[in-house]
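Hello,

Following up on my earlier ticket. Below are the four sequence lines again, exactly as submitted.
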Amino acid sequence: MASIHEEMVQKTKTQIQYHFIALVEEDGFSQVSVKKIAERANINRGTFYLHYVDKYELMDHLQQQLLNELQARITAILPKEVFMALHQQQLYPPFVAIFQFISEHAHALRAILGDKGDPSFAKKVKRVFGEVLLERLISQHPAAKDEEFLKYMNAFMTSAILGVIQEWLENCEEQSVEEMAKIHFQILKFISQLRTFIE
Amino acid sequence: MASIHEEMVQKTKTQIQYHFIALVEEDGFSQVSVKKIAERANINRGTFYLHYVDKYELMDHLQQQLLNELQARITAILPKEVFMALHQQQLYPPFVAIFQFISEHAHALRAILGDKGDPSFAKKVKRVFGEVLLERLISQHPAAKDEEFLKYMNAFMTSAILGVIQEWLENCEEQSVEEMAKIHFQILKFISQLRTFIE
DNA sequence: AAATACATTCAACACTGTGTTAATTAAAGA
DNA sequence: TCTTTAATTAACACAGTGTTGAATGTATTT
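Thanks for your patience. The regenerated structure is below:
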């Protein structure tokens, strides 16, 4: 399992990934070249090509890892429990777990979801949110029968959630994981009370 | 004002911009090269450099144009009138005007706000929405005193609005301008009634 | 008609990054 | 000691970049 050669490969790959993330966070993906990655990671440029086809494959690999882990955490959310937690004024642990995960991978996520990041990844994240969360949530509402409306409602809510995460990442996690879970809770509360302005 | 030379310059610039948008929409900004633009626009590669420093300057120019026009239309929105329109179950003309504008510039906006687009432009659009709309809207709410909360609430709402626009662009404007204004109206309605699930 | 002004063209230039290859080095295991 | 294999090194053709200087075409001016 852990032959010396396999360990060498893993160590090199980890080096590449670490410095790749740093570079993307600094200059944006488009400005990152294989040459720069190799220089920063103190490896030969040729070595990079032993492990990855190009910088795009490396990015894909990183994104897939993050997406899988995120999906697992999002799947743990149960809308009914969300409503119960909201009603009882208490934090919902799966939400905390998600913010925890984001915090742990802040550099990578900031690199990919930030200003100079990859919009297609943002879209994938939205899809995960949408599949797991909103199908169940909105389907309870009478207006949910309108498929057209559902599509845009889905875009609205998933974009909103992602927007909050992006804002947090941009502020370099000034707010703690617990604070974010609380803010998230407040926002849900606030939205649910917007009607007071309309009626 | 309209010397022959100035006309030539304008015609060439228009050609460059048109084909640049088409190329970005097809392949994404990162895949677009000055060479491709020149080939597509039937001009010499050198001619491009007579008008723009590089493809980045061209992109900046395009973005600034769109952003200015969008800002003008967003500024016309008055939150009070939005609530009135919502209450009276009628469409709010400034919203229709914005969807109209988006529809007119669908190709450029899809290129910039789409999958292979530029996240920094999305951020700029959000800022415009935020400055004009939400400062006035949220400041009326008691919780608005919490600056931290306000920041994330702002991110939530502006991202949500932009998300709906991106979804529309992605569907190649299957829904008409009027339908979109209506859907937008429905979403606001829906959100304002979410509390029924919580209490 | 000739002179001019100016947008565009064309060919050539050095430069940077890419992806590949073949020969070489270094370190661990049999 | 011999083998295996990751990593190195240097060289290669190739793509696109940004720049330059001379040439071309067209419209206005004298």
